[in-house]
Q: What sequence folds into this?
């Protein structure tokens, strides 16, 4: 019932709980958001006065095919049976929309890729939504914030695998740039309570972001972001003197070689 990465989830919740005491706002962008424990932690923080926003896929992007049981992490007892990722997300979203928690927003990012019919089917929902980030941003002040990036979906009904989580402390310039990305993502998204059909709302407004720090964000709404990221990665690799360490979940460059 803690999802595919119990240890990472525990450490993440402990971290945001500690920083919530001084945080002004917290933003999560999650490919999948169906983890009740994480949701409870974020609702608790929002209830204490911290503006909290979660952006995720619309329900059509959640897998509705693979069914299975859920077991308690502590006791090993079965707590739910024959459910899909979509089932769990639908219950969680419905609860949020019904209760309209204070200082808490749930958003859907509806941007869709156009995929060739020759692309091999993938184990997701019916619609090929582009959002695949698993990240968080905690703003303490204009001079201090924290960025969280993990390879884990933190999702219920995901398989447990080796995953990592990275937490970075940001200075003033990095805080400004990270906040610009999350604000841009949220402006392109739709409030869950108002979401009807993401296809007709799936157009992205273009956003110009002049990124000057080592932080690079790529998104359909940031002009030239993939090209800039590829250029920086190549330049960084070429500048190496002793060794190169690459930690990447997906590599999808425009040109290889």
A:
């Amino acid at each position: 019932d803690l999802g595919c990465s119990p240890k990472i989830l525990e450490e993440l919740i402990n971290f945001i709980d500690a920083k919530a005491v001084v945080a002004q706002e917290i933003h999560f962008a999650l490919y999948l958001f169906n983890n009740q424990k994480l949701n409870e932690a974020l609702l608790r923080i929002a209830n204490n006065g911290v503006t909290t926003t979660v952006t995720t896929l619309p329900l059509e992007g959640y897998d509705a095919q693979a069914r299975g049981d859920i077991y308690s992490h502590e006791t090993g007892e079965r707590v739910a049976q024959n459910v899909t990722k979509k089932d769990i997300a639908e219950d969680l979203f419905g609860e949020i929309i019904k209760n309209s928690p204070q200082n808490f927003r749930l958003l859907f990012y509806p941007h869709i890729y156009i995929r060739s019919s020759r692309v091999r089917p993938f184990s997701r929902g019916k619609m090929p939504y582009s959002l695949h980030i698993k990240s968080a941003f905690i703003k303490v002040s204009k001079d201090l914030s924290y960025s969280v990036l993990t390879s884990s979906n933190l999702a219920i009904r995901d398989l447990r695998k080796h995953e990592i989580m990275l937490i970075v402390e940001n200075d003033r310039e990095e805080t400004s740039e990270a906040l610009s990305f999350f604000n841009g993502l949220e402006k392109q998204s739709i409030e869950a309570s108002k979401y009807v059909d993401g296809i007709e709302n799936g157009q992205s407004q273009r956003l110009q972001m002049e990124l000057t720090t080592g932080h690079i964000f790529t998104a359909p709404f940031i002009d030239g972001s993939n090209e800039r990221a590829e250029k920086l990665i190549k330049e960084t690799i070429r500048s190496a003197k002793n060794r190169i360490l690459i930690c990447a979940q997906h590599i999808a460059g425009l040109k290889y070689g």
